[in-house]
Amino acid sequence: MRENNSLVSVPTVRPTLEAVRHQFETWRKRRRCRSRIPESLWQAVVRLCEEHSICDVSQALGLNYSRLKNRVTRARDRSPAVGQGPHFRFVRLDLGSPMTPSECWVEMEASNGARMRMSFKGIPREFDPAELSRVFWRQGG
Q1: Cross-strand pairs, 107
Q2: pLDDT band at 10, cuts 50/70/90?
Q3: Integer Rg of the chain from CA
Q4: Which of 16, 28, 38, 138 is exposed most, by the fewest CB atoms within 10 A?
Q5: Residues 6 or more apart from 10 whose CB is under 8 A from it?
Q6: Where are the domains of the chain?
Q7: How do residues 55-93 score in pLDDT, each as one tens digit?
Q8: Of the candidates 121, 113, 105, 101, which has an alpha carbon nearest to the alpha carbon of residue 139?
Q9: How far apart (Å, rounded) are the C-alpha atoms in residues 45 and 41?
Q10: Using alpha carbons only, what angle is made at residue 43 by residues 40 and 48, rounded to the nearest 5 degrees?
């Protein structure tokens, strides 16, 4: 039988350590023996680790340090900060239809020395610049 995880609500604003501690106390009083921590609580805990150390959070909430560290690491890997991706350093450009014709130059250079330069005037209709970029990077560029 599945446990009802709706007993624990996580606010959309960044939670405080005290609020999450209270949510854990409430969940622990109502849970069935050996039930898993609801995903909503894990998400709140991971958000706490943006402001507090993993050690402090794990001690305050009575959580396993290693499991919490793994969760925080996975969450950070899923959402890297802009410009901090593992392999690429570029900015995505939306080349949707502009109001007025424009001119744009895009130059890419890979660590192996491969280069690609694209120039656009007006609206590119017969090719996809984003697909050209993907092919360049896939070719070891």
Answers
A1: 117
A2: very low
A3: 23
A4: 138
A5: 23, 40, 41, 43, 44
A6: 5-78, 84-141
A7: 999 999 989 999 999 998 888 877 655 445 455 556 676
A8: 113
A9: 6
A10: 130
